[in-house]
Write a structure and sequence with these properties.
The structure holds two protein chains of two kinds.
Chain A (H helix, E strand, L loop, with lengths): L2 H28 L7 H8 L16 H14 L1 H20 L8 E4 L14 E3 L2 E10 L6 E7 L4 E6 L6 E5 L10 E10 L2 E4 L2 H34 L3 E2 L2 E2 L4 H26 L10 H23 L2 H4 L5 H12 L5 H7 L2
Parallel strand pairs in A: 1-4
Antiparallel strand pairs in A: 2-3, 3-7, 4-5, 5-8, 6-7, 9-10
Helix pairs in contact in A: 1-3, 3-4, 3-5, 3-6, 4-5, 5-6, 5-7, 5-9, 6-7, 7-9, 7-10
Chain B lengths: L4 H5 L7 H18 L3 H10 L6 H9 L18 H12 L3 H20 L2 H16 L6 E4 L12 H4 L7 E5 L2 E12 L6 E7 L5 H4 E7 L5 E6 L10 E12 L10 H37 L1 E2 L2 E2 L4 H37 L2 H17 L5 H19 L3 H30 L10 H10 L7 H16 L2
Parallel strand pairs in B: 1-4
Antiparallel strand pairs in B: 2-3, 3-7, 4-5, 6-7, 8-9
Classes of the chains: A alpha+beta, B alpha+beta.
Chain lengths: 342, 463
C-alpha cells in the first residue's frame, strides 16, 4: 500500500466515520446488548474490513494497521478494537483459514489457568474441541470463532460456528470495551469446521499481532484523552488562573504527552520493520507491556485534569480510561506479555 | 483480611479496646451485608442509577454506624477520627460505594461537631441517634463544591478568586440560599445537608458560612444524580437552591467563620478518605489473593509462581504503609483538634450528659441569646485549638494523596496478576480500580493535597 493510501486510510477512516462512531459508541458502552450499527459495518466493509470477499484483495500492512487504529481509537477505543477484530479475522483466515471466509471472527486465546503461551487445556482431537476460554471479546457478535488449543503434536487453531452444538457463551460484564461484547466460551465436544496445526512461534506471532493492535488502540485513546484534557485546561479557571498555567497541570500533561509520543514512535518503528509474514518473535508483546502502562497512566492523567467531571460518564474521559485499562490486559497483561514473549 | 488486628492496625489497639470492638463490628457488617451484594449492586446501578440501598443503611443502624462520630452525651458512640477511619477501611474492603454512604454522612456531621454547636446537637444529632435506635436512618450530606469551584472552595487563598454561584442572604428570621452545589455525596438521599457558602460572593472568605438545610425545605431540590465511573452506590447529586429559606437556628456556629470550619472539616475528613482508599486497595488485594489460591495453573496454583508472590508482597507492603500513614494523620487530628475541643472524654461526656436537660430546657431562649451562646462556643473552639491544626491539615493531606495513589498502584498490580480475568466484573477487582480512582479526586484533588503538604509541612521544614 502506498504512503498516500496509508494516509488516506488512517485519516480518512477517522474523518468519514467520526459522526457514526461518536453517535453510536457511547450507547453501546451503556448497553452492550444493542446490535452493532449496520451503517457503520457497511461503511467499513466498503474499505475491506468485515468484508469476507476482500480478505485476499485488501491487505493492510502493519504500518497501515497501526495508523488506522491510532486514529480510530482516538475517536473511540472500542471502535478501534472493533476494527482490530476485522483486521485480525482476515489475517487469521489468510494464514490458517479453511472453508469460506467469515465476515467476522472472535479470537479465543486466554484460559484462566494458562501457564505458558502455548499451554492450553482446551484440546482438539479428531475434529472435536473440548475446553473453555475466558474473556473473549466480540464472541457474542462474531460469525466465527478462531480458537487456540492443544492439538496432536502442539498448538492448533480451530474454526467453529458459535451456534454449533456444544458451544456455550456466558456473557460477562467488563471494565471497558463494553460495546464489543465479551463472553466466556465453553466447548463440549464441539465439531470444528476446520483446523490448522501450529508451532509455538505461530502462537507468539498471533499474540504479537493482537498486541500490536491493542497497543495502537491504547495509545490512540491515550492521545485523545490528553488532547481533551488540554482543551479543558485551557478553559477551566481555578486557584486564580486558567489551570493550564499551573505547574502541576503543565507537568502532568507534558510528561504524559512525552511518554505517549515515545511509545507511538516505538510502535511505528516496529510496525515499519514488520510485514505480515515476518516474525517479530514477541517484540510487540514486549513493547505492549511497557506501552500499555504508559497509556493507562496518560488516560488517568486525562481524567485527573478534568477533576470531578473527568470521573463522570457524561464527559467521555472515564470511558477512555476504562477502555485503556482493559486494553492493558488484552491479549495478555504486561507481566505475562514479557514472561511469555520468549 | 488478617484476624491479628494488632498486626494490621498496630499495637496501639491494645490500649484502645473500643476501637478494636469497632473494627470487629465493621468487619462483621462487611462480611454479612456488603460482600454478598457488592458486585451485583454496583452492576445494578448501571441500569438504575437512582437506586438507594435503604435496607443496607437500615442494617447499619443495628451496628450503630450512623452515630459513630457523635459524642456519647449526644446519644452517639463517641468515636474519634481514628475510629471513623478504621471503620471506613473495613467497610471499603467490601464496597466503597456502600461505605461512602456512611462516610459522606460523617462528613455532613463534622461541621456542627467541630463548631460545638450544641443547639444542633440537641435537635438534629438527637434525631440521628433516636432514628438509629428504631432503625430509621437519618442521613447527612455536606455540600461545598460548586460547578466552577472545586479546588477553590477548599483553600482560603483560592476562595478569594473563586467563581461562585451560590450565596446566602440574611433575611428576617434566617437566610435565603440561592445557587447550585455539585457532586454532593448523599445529596439526594440525606435528610439534612450541611451547605457551606458565602454571604457575600465578593468577600467569600470573610463571609463563608455553614448552614444545615433540611431536605424538606422549600426551594431545595436534587436536580440530577451523576453517572459515576465507580463508587456508584453512593449517589453524587447536583443540589439547587431557589430562594431556599433556612432559619437562624440552622446556621452552624457563627456567620463568617465557615472557612476555618471548612479547613477543620477537611483536616478531619482526609484521614478517613485515605482509609477509604486503603480499604479499596485491601479489597482488591484480598480478592486477588483468593483468585491466586484458587486458580490451578499447570500442576500447581497461580500463587506458587515466584512473580505472583513478589507482586502480592508489593501490594501488602503498599497497604501497610498506607494504613500507617492515615492512622498517624488521624491520631494527630484527634490530639491537636478533637481532644482540645472536647477535652478528656471520660470527664466531659458524663458532665455534658448531666447538662442535657438544662440545655434543652433553654432551647426556648430568644435568638439573640442563642447567637451569643453559639459565638461563645465558637470562640472557645478557636482558643482551644490554637494554630496546632495547621500541621494536622498538612499530615491529613499527605495521608490522603499517599493512600489514594497507593490504592491505585495496588489495584493496577492486582489486574496484572489476574491477567485478562481482572477485567471481568464478577471478580470485583475492576470495580476496586474504578472505586479507587475517585479517591485521587475528591476531598481535594491530589494536586491540591500536595500543595497543602508543601504549605503546612515542607514550608516549615526549611525554616
Amino acid at each position: 500500500m502506498s504512503a498516500w493510501e496509508t494516509d488516506l486510510l488512517s485519516s480518512g477512516v477517522a474523518r468519514l466515520f467520526s459522526e457514526k462512531v461518536e453517535s453510536h459508541m457511547p450507547a453501546l458502552d451503556e448497553d452492550p446488548s444493542r446490535p452493532l450499527p449496520v451503517d457503520l459495518l457497511v461503511s467499513l466493509s466498503e474499505i475491506g474490513i468485515f468484508d469476507a470477499a476482500a480478505y485476499d484483495a485488501v491487505i493492510f500492512s502493519p504500518s497501515s494497521c497501526v495508523e488506522l487504529l491510532l486514529s480510530a481509537s482516538a475517536l473511540c477505543p472500542t471502535y478501534g478494537m472493533l476494527l482490530s477484530t476485522g483486521l485480525l479475522g482476515s489475517q487469521l483466515h489468510r494464514q490458517w483459514g479453511c472453508g469460506s471466509p467469515p465476515s467476522s471472527v472472535a479470537h479465543c486465546a486466554w484460559e484462566s489457568g494458562q501457564s505458558a503461551v502455548d499451554a492450553f487445556d482446551t484440546v482438539l482431537a479428531d475434529g472435536v474441541i473440548t475446553g473453555e476460554k475466558s474473556m473473549v471479546f466480540f464472541a457474542p457478535r462474531a460469525e466465527r470463532l478462531a480458537v487456540l488449543g492443544a492439538g496432536r503434536d502442539g498448538p492448533a487453531l480451530a474454526w467453529l460456528d458459535p451456534g454449533a452444538p456444544g458451544v456455550s457463551l456466558d456473557a460477562c460484564g467488563t471494565l471497558g470495551l463494553r460495546g464489543l461484547g465479551c463472553a466466556h466460551v465453553g466447548f463440549d465436544g464441539t465439531a470444528v469446521l476446520g483446523a490448522a496445526e501450529l508451532k509455538t512461534a505461530d502462537v507468539v506471532d498471533i499474540l504479537d499481532t493482537c498486541s500490536m493492535y491493542a497497543t495502537a488502540c491504547a495509545l490512540g485513546a491515550a492521545t485523545r484523552s490528553l488532547s481533551v484534557a488540554r482543551e479543558y485546561a485551557a478553559q477551566r479557571y481555578q486557584a486564580g488562573r486558567i489551570i493550564k498555567g499551573h505547574d502541576a497541570v503543565r507537568l502532568m500533561l507534558a510528561n504524559s504527552e512525552a511518554a505517549v509520543n515515545s511509545a507511538v514512535s516505538a510502535l511505528r518503528s516496529l510496525a515499519a520493520a514488520s510485514t505480515e509474514q515476518a516474525r517479530q518473535g514477541g517484540a510487540f508483546l514486549r513493547l505492549k507491556s511497557h506501552a500499555s502502562r504508559i497509556a493507562v497512566a496518560a488516560a488517568s492523567d486525562g481524567v485527573q485534569v478534568l477533576g470531578g467531571y473527568g470521573y463522570m460518564r457524561d464527559y467521555g474521559q472515564e470511558r477512555r480510561f476504562r477502555d485503556v485499562c482493559t486494553l492493558m490486559l488484552y491479549p495478555l497483561d504486561p507481566v505475562r506479555s514479557v514472561l511469555w514473549a520468549g | 483480611m488478617n484476624a491479628d488486628l494488632e498486626l494490621e492496625y498496630g499495637v496501639m489497639l491494645g490500649r484502645r479496646p473500643a476501637t478494636r470492638a469497632r473494627i470487629l463490628a465493621a468487619r462483621e457488617f462487611r462480611m454479612k451485608h456488603i460482600d454478598p451484594v457488592a458486585v451485583d449492586l454496583d452492576h445494578r446501578m448501571l441500569a438504575d442509577p437512582h437506586y438507594h440501598p435503604e435496607d443496607i443503611v437500615r442494617k447499619g443502624c443495628e451496628y450503630s454506624l450512623l452515630t459513630q462520630p457523635l459524642p456519647r452525651f449526644a446519644g452517639g458512640q463517641g468515636g474519634t477520627i481514628v475510629d471513623m477511619a478504621v471503620v471506613l477501611e473495613e467497610l471499603c474492603a467490601g464496597c466503597a460505594g456502600i461505605a461512602n454512604i456512611f462516610g459522606a454522612h460523617y462528613l455532613g456531621l463534622t461541621g456542627a461537631l467541630i463548631a460545638l454547636d450544641l443547639n444542633i446537637y440537641d435537635r438534629l444529632f438527637k434525631e440521628v441517634a433516636d432514628g438509629e435506635r428504631v432503625g430509621r436512618p437519618v442521613l447527612f450530606a455536606a455540600a461545598v463544591t460548586e460547578p466552577s469551584a472545586g479546588t477553590d472552595v477548599e483553600e482560603a487563598e483560592f476562595l478569594r478568586q473563586a467563581r461562585l454561584v451560590t450565596s446566602a442572604q440574611a433575611v428576617d428570621g434566617g437566610y435565603r440560599l440561592n445557587g447550585t452545589k455539585v457532586f454532593i455525596s448523599n445529596g439526594n438521599v440525606a435528610t439534612y445537608t450541611m451547605v457551606i457558602c458565602a454571604l457575600d460572593r465578593a468577600r467569600p472568605v470573610e463571609t463563608w458560612s455553614a448552614f444545615i438545610v433540611p431536605a424538606a425545605s422549600k426551594g431545595f431540590s436534587a436536580s440530577r444524580v451523576e453517572l459515576k465511573m465507580g463508587q456508584r452506590v453512593c449517589h453524587a447529586a447536583e443540589l439547587r437552591f431557589d430562594d431556599c429559606f433556612v432559619p437562624d437556628e440552622n446556621l452552624i456556629g457563627v456567620e463568617g467563620r465557615g472557612m476555618l470550619m471548612t479547613e477543620l472539616v477537611l483536616t478531619a475528613s482526609r484521614p478517613p478518605v485515605a482509609a477509604i482508599a486503603t480499604g479499596i486497595g485491601r479489597g482488591a488485594y484480598e480478592r486477588t489473593l483468593a483468585y491466586c489460591r484458587d486458580r490451578r495453573v499447570g500442576n500447581g496454583h497461580l500463587i506458587d509462581q515466584g512473580w505472583v508472590q513478589q507482586s502480592l508482597a508489593d501490594m501488602r507492603g503498599e497497604l501497610q504503609l498506607a494504613r500507617t500513614s492515615y492512622l498517624h494523620a488521624a491520631a494527630l487530628f484527634d490530639e491537636r483538634v478533637l481532644e482540645r475541643i472536647y477535652g478528656s472524654r471520660s470527664l466531659v461526656d458524663p458532665f455534658m450528659k448531666l447538662l442535657n436537660p438544662l440545655r434543652r430546657s433553654r432551647a426556648g431562649l430568644g435568638i439573640t441569646a442563642r447567637k451569643r451562646f453559639k459565638r461563645r462556643m465558637a470562640d472557645l473552639v478557636e482558643r482551644r485549638i490554637g494554630d496546632g491544626w495547621h500541621t494536622a491539615l498538612g499530615m491529613s493531606s499527605l495521608a490522603k494523596f499517599s493512600c489514594s495513589d497507593a490504592a491505585m498502584r495496588v489495584c493496577l498490580k492486582a489486574m496484572e496478576v489476574m491477567g485478562p480475568d481482572a477485567a471481568d466484573e464478577r471478580y470485583g477487582v475492576e470495580k476496586a480500580l474504578r472505586d479507587a480512582r475517585l479517591t485521587q479526586i475528591y476531598e481535594g484533588t491530589n494536586q491540591l493535597n500536595r500543595y497543602q503538604v508543601y504549605r503546612q509541612l515542607v514550608a516549615c521544614d526549611h525554616q
